[in-house]
Amino acid sequence: MRARRLLKYLAWSAWLLAGAAPAQQAASNGTRLPPAHGDAPQLSVIPQVAQAPRAVPIPTLAADSVVPPLPATRDQLASRQRLLESLNEGRVANGNLQESGLEAGDEVYRDGDVLAVVRLSGLSREFFWLEGPVDLQRVQFVPEPGGRYRVNASINPQAPVSHRISAAELHRVVNAEVPAAGSAERARLQQLCNNGQAIAATIWPGALLPADRLLLGQKAIVMVRREGNDMARYWLKGRIDLGQGGLQKVDGNLYEVIGVVH
Question: What residue segments make up the domains of the chain, in order of their start?
Answer without folding.
Answer: 74-151, 167-257
